[in-house]
């Protein structure tokens, strides 16, 4: 029995509310159970310096957790004067994941920055950030298309992510913190709308895992993606 009482393949309730900030070109608040992440997209009309005069655009991400996103207050990283290694790793993952679903030549020489701010954390924050970040990106690109700034849609496919792991000897989908903190194996799976894999992060936290267990987690992630993709489609109206 999972602590939440969910079935092994059951996700936490998922909701995506769009247009939650006034100024960002695209924004949403994604809730996966008690994990809540604010995702915003900002369009910058020039690319990073290393892409100047290449005709290519760029999508990047920044990630952070508010001080009381967890049960005890965390010090702001800005106050410490540097980002943690965890923060840097997660925001690079989000950027890589979202770029995999974009035709950068169709985007043109501009950059879209996705900011993912965790308001409340209960496991799976990086996965929620990728899933919500894609919605914010889609909304920002819609604005470019409507304005005529670009003529061809650079979004190649949906991108979403889900955590799956081995909890109490059983493969389970969408781990919350109570499961993630003691899981024998923890994995993050980033997928496209067509079911293609972008990235898989798996590690044995307390026990090694078999190839069959890895296959079971891949199957769980594939099934879970269908729910996340449907939530994205409903949020953006397509």
UniProtKB/TrEMBL annotation:
The lineage of its organism: Bacteria, Pseudomonadati, Pseudomonadota, Alphaproteobacteria, Rhodobacterales. Keywords: Nucleotidyltransferase, RNA-binding, rRNA processing, Transferase, tRNA processing, tRNA-binding. InterPro entries: ExoRNase_PH_dom1, ExoRNase_PH_dom2, ExoRNase_PH_dom2_sf, PNPase/RNase_PH_dom_sf, Ribosomal_Su5_D2-typ_SF, RNase_PH, RNase_PH_bac-type, RNase_PH_CS. GO terms for molecular function: 3'-5'-RNA exonuclease activity; tRNA binding; tRNA nucleotidyltransferase activity. The keyword tRNA-binding applies. GO terms for biological process: rRNA 3'-end processing; rRNA catabolic process; tRNA processing. Phosphorolytic 3'-5' exoribonuclease that plays an important role in tRNA 3'-end maturation. Removes nucleotide residues following the 3'-CCA terminus of tRNAs; can also add nucleotides to the ends of RNA molecules by using nucleoside diphosphates as substrates, but this may not be physiologically important. Probably plays a role in initiation of 16S rRNA degradation (leading to ribosome degradation) during starvation. Homohexameric ring arranged as a trimer of dimers. HAMAP family: RNase_PH. This is Ribonuclease PH. PROSITE patterns: RIBONUCLEASE_PH. SUPFAM superfamilies: Ribonuclease PH domain 2-like, Ribosomal protein S5 domain 2-like. Belongs to the RNase PH family.
């Amino acid at each position: 029995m999972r602590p939440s009482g969910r079935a092994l393949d059951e996700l936490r309730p998922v909701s995506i509310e769009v247009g939650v900030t006034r100024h960002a070109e695209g924004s949403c608040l994604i809730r996966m159970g008690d994990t809540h992440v604010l995702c915003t997209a900002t369009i910058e009309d020039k690319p990073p310096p290393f892409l100047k005069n290449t005709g290519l655009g760029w999508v990047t991400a920044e990630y952070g957790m508010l001080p009381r996103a967890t049960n005890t207050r965390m010090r702001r990283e800005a106050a410490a004067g540097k980002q943690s290694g965890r923060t840097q790793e997660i925001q690079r993952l989000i950027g890589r994941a979202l770029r995999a679903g974009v035709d950068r030549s169709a985007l043109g020489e501009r950059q879209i920055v996705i900011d993912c701010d965790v308001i409340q954390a209960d496991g799976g924050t990086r996965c929620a950030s990728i899933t919500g970040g894609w919605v914010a990106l889609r909304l920002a690109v819609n604005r470019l298309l409507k304005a005529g700034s670009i003529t061809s849609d650079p979004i190649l496919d949906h991108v979403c992510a889900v955590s799956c792991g081995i909890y109490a000897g059983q493969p389970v989908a969408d781990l919350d913190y109570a499961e993630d903190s003691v899981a024998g194996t923890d994995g993050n799976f980033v997928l496209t709308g067509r079911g293609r894999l972008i990235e898989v992060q798996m590690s044995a936290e307390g026990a090694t895992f078999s190839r069959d267990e890895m296959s079971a987690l891949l199957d769980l992630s594939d099934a879970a993606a269908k729910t996340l993709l449907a939530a994205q489609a409903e949020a953006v109206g397509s």
